[in-house]
Each structure stands twice: as structure tokens, then as C-alpha cells.
Amino acid sequence: MTRLANGPVHSGTSSVKLSWSPKVRDKVRMEYQRGSDFEMPGRSRGGRGEKVAIFAAKLLVTGACLWYVSRQIDLNQIWSVIPLLDFRWAALAILVAMLEIPLSGLRWYNIVDSLGARDKQMTRIAMVAATAVGVFFAQVLPSVAGEGVRAWLLVRLGSDWRNAVTSAVIDRGVGVGLVIALGFVILLLPSGVTALGKYRDVVLVVDGALILAGVVGLLLAPKIVPPLAQWRYSRWFATLAADVHRILLGSKGPVILTIGCLIHASTISVVWSVGRAQGLALPLPDAAVLFTVMIGVAFIPISIGGWGLRELAVISLLASYGVAPERALLLSVCFGLALVFGSLPGALIWLLYPFPPARHNAERGG
User: DSSP secondary structure string, 349-365?
Assistant: First the structure.
């Protein structure tokens, strides 16, 4: 239960010392009691229709991008290259993609533990299993579905909805933030000088601004949380900011960030292995540039899993390296397929792992 006094204010178990007037304190208590677990009554029908419309729009964008790409290439050349692929390198890429799942699970485990929300059922194995299922659904459905499945499985393991959603959001945010930070560093490497052409400087400025804003926001979180917490529509963001501040600057912050960097380094090795499968001897810095582009466009929420946009971006980028559009397209598609095949253990875990039934934790959501 959230403690509302002139002292620590808790969301789950995170704490930030706030000093509120009795009037504000009473108002916060009332709002938390009225809407503790992200309940949004009366919006189910409209929300469902909105989700369908958004999915249809993303599907349209993905289809349009793939249609445009298909008009720029010779499909016969792609079919002639496929038999020449070295599937040993492709298998290595899939294996590395699979090994990222336990790392992701351990990162999430440490985030949940830092929130103080870890139940006895939330073992490392259980968290890795839930992560594997979420990764699988993120590959076959829009990525937000994977995050929703992860949060739901965490509730089944004994969490309440607030901590489940908060931990998934923070875990996702850590991954995105590290991509931005690594992208900034990668574009400063010698191989990144010609990457993105005339847009390189613009991307560096944007990345630098985002990094600066993130660091300043993280350091000033204790100052900005109290005023944000006084407003109903920014209250959840205030508690989220307090949680992020406590997790990343806490004792497990370095562990969480190190695991995140290892995950992205593994993804770079997946890109490199896929290139080797096609006979492209990409230096690691060049593979890192491709990683920045491939993962970066996947974060743009206008297509299904980045498909279509990623292919356009890779074809444009590799054109400056003299790579034919057909080979660039095959590289991008093989990368996407490596991630899909790498997520298949999640399907088996979904079918076989004995997650507790939802009703077991029905009383923990309040």
C-alpha cells in the first residue's frame, strides 16, 4: 500500500522523500486508492478499436515499404544468392540471439529486485522463462504485446500490476537508452564517419541531446518528482521517475547497465555473423553501425517490428559501401529471421513451463 505522509512516498517499494502539504497528501491518497492498478474502466471498447486501427496502420506502412523495396531489386538475384549462404554462420547468429534471452531475463530480474517487488516465486529461472515468452510474442506480434505478456506473467509469479508494468517499462527504457548511447559512440568511430551520409551530424546532435536530457533528468529526479506528483495525470510518471532514479543510481545500477551493454554487443555479433553468412567480411565497427540503424528504426513505432523500414534503411546505408540492393535486402531479412528463430525457445517455454495460474495471485493486485 502506498504510504502518504511527510516522508517516503512509495510506489510498490520505491521511495523518494517528498514533503507535501496535508491537502496535497490527502488528494494523492484518494487518487491512489481510486486507481491503484492502472484500471481504466469504460475504455475497453474504444481502446480495442484504437489498437486494431493502429495495428492496421503499422501493417500498411510495413507493406508499403516492402512493396517499394521489391520494385528496386531483382528477386531472381536474391533466389540465386540464397543457396550460396553459409548456414553455419547463420546458425551461429541464431544461437547468439537465443543467448541474449537469459541476459535479458537477468537484467529484468535485477530491476524487479531493485524495486523490492521480488516474490519467492520470481527466481532467476522463472524470470528468464517469462522473458523468453515475452521475446517470442514481441517477434510474432507488435512489440508492445511482448511487454504486456511479460508483465502479465510477472503478475502470475506473485507481483502486483503496478510493479509488473513499471519493471517492464524500465527494462525497455534501459534497452532503448543504451542503444542511443552506444549509437552516439559508434557514429564517432572511424567507420561511422561516412555512415548516414549528410545525416550523420544531425543524428549525432539528436543522440547527444537525448543523452544529455536523460542524464539531467535522472540526476534531478528528486527535484522534479514532488511537483509532478501533485498532478493526477503526471503522478504515475513521477513515481516512475523516482523508481528509475533509485534503480539506476542504486547498488544494482552498474549490473543492470553492464548486462544491457552485453545484450547489445551480442546483437552486433548477430549482425556480423549474418554478414559472414553472405560472404560480407564486415569489420566490427561497420557491423556496429548497421546495428545502430537496424535497431534504431525498429524503435520507430510506425511499422510491425521495424520490418520494411529496416530494409529501406539497410539498403540505403550499404549502397554507399557498394553493396548491391539485393544483398543488402537479404542481409536485413536474414537478421530479422535470426531474431525470429532465436525467439522460438519462448514458444516451447510458453507451452511447457509451469507458470502459476492467474487466480493464484488474484488478491495481490490491490
Answer: HHHHS-PPPGGGGGGG-
Provide the 8-state DSSP code for 357.
P
* Grid cell 555479433 in the structure block, residue: 269
How many domains is the chain partitioned into structurally?
1
C-alpha to C-alpha distance for 151 and 158, rounded to whole angstroms: 11
Report how far residue 304's alpha carbon sits from residue 190's, in angstroms, rounded to the nearest whole number: 32
Residue 24 lies in a domain: no
Q: Can you tell me the distance from the alpha carbon of 247 to that of 93, in angstroms, rounded to the nearest whole number?
A: 32
User: Is 164 within the bounds of a domain?
Assistant: yes
Name the strand (E) or helix (H) holding 17. Answer: strand 14-17
Q: Using one digit for the tens of pLDDT, what is the confidence trace for 195-207?
A: 666 677 788 898 8
User: Does 255 fall in a domain?
Assistant: yes
Cα gap 198→191, rounded to integer Å: 15
Burial class (CB in 10 A: 0-12, 13-18, 19+), 265: middle
Backbone φ and ψ for 91, nearest 5 degrees, come out as -65, -35
Q: Model's pTM, two decimal places?
A: 0.80
> How far does Cα 53 stand from its chain's mean position?
22
Task: Name the packing angle between helices 87-114 and 124-140 (round to 10°).
Answer: 120
Joined together, the cell numbers standing for residue 152 give: 502479465
C-alpha cell at 203: 543524428
The C-alpha cell at 96 is 547468439
Q: 239: closest CA among 71, 35, 101?
A: 35
Looking at the domain assignment, is residue 16 inside a domain? no
Phi, psi of 14 (to 5 degrees): -75, 155
Burial category of 229 from C-beta neighbours within 10 Å (exposed 0-12, middle 13-18, buried 19 and up): buried
* Cα four-point dihedral sign 130, 269, 138, 208: positive
CB 305 within 8 A of CB 298: yes
The residues facing 81 across adjacent strands are: none
Q: Is 227 exposed, middle or buried (0-12, 13-18, 19+ CB in 10 A)?
A: exposed
Q: Which domain holds residue 352?
A: 44-364
Query: What pLDDT, in 10s, does the model give residues 165-222?
Result: 999 999 999 999 999 999 899 888 776 546 666 677 788 898 899 999 999 999 998 8
List 212's β-bridge partners, or say none: none
The sign of the dihedral angle between the CA atoms of 108, 111, 116, 117 is: negative
